[in-house]
Amino acid sequence: MLANVDHIPSTDWKQKTLEIATFKDRFTKLMSKFENGEGIFALKKMLDKRKRKRLNKKKTKEFRKQQIEEKLINRVKLHKAIDEWLRSKQEEVEKCKTDENMKKDADCVLGEVTKKKSDARKQLTLIGALTKLRAVREQMASHRGEKMSAEDKQVFRTSMEKLSKMWEDSSRTYMTEEQRLKLMLEKTAVEDSKSIQLAKERKLLDEWYTVFFGPMEAISPENTMYWALTAAERDMETFIALRRSWDTFLVPPTNEMGSSIPIGWVLPDGNAGENWTKYLSNA
To answer: Which Gene Ontology CC terms are recorded (predicted)?
Structure first.
C-alpha cells in the first residue's frame, strides 16, 4: 500500500481522503450514540421491546398450538362419548327387542296352551255328553225290551274312562303350564316396572346432582383430593374407619346435646339392646 502512495494521482488522493473523512464522520456519530447514556438506554429499550414482541409471538403461537391440541383431544373425547352413548342406546334397543320378542313368544305359547286347555275341556264335555247319550239309549232300549250286551257296556265304559283320564291329565298339565307362563309374564312386568322406576329415580338424582354441583365430568386420576374424600365409597375398611372416628364423638347420656341419634343415621330395629333403646324415644 505504501508503494502505491507515490503513484496515486492527487485528484484520486483527494477523493479517497474525502471518502475516508465521510466514513470517519459516520463512525464518530455511531460511536457517540454508544458513548451517550440516553442512546444506550434507547437501544436497550428497543431491544427489550423487540424481545417482548418475539416472546408474545412465541406465546401466541404456543397458545394456538395448545388450543388446537385441546380441540383435537376434546373432539376425540366427544367422539368416544358419542360412540359409548350410541352403543348404550343400541344395547337398550336390542334388550327391548329381546324382551319384546320374549313376551311375544310367551304370549304365543300362552295362547297355544290356553287353546289346548280349552280343547281338553271340550273333549271332556264331549265325553260326558257321549256317556249321557249312551245311558239314554240304553234306557230306551230297555223300555223297548231290548237287552244290551254286558261286554259292550264294559268296553264303552273302559274306553270313556281312559279318554276322560287322558284329557283330564292333559288339562291339568295345560293349567300348570298356563299358570307358570302367567307368573313369568307377571314377574317380567314387575321387573320392567321396577326398572322403569329405578331409571326415573336415577335420572332424578342425576338432575339434582347437576343442579347442586353442575354437570358431571370425568374425574382426573390426578385429583388426589377427590379420591381421598370419596375413598369410603369404594373401600369398606375406609368406611368403617371413618364411622369409628365419628363414634368417638358420642357423649354420655347426661349430655342433653347428645340425647338422640343424629338425623340420617341408620336406626336400630325394635329389638335393639338397652344401649340403643334409650335413644329411640328421642330419635
So the answer is: U12-type spliceosomal complex
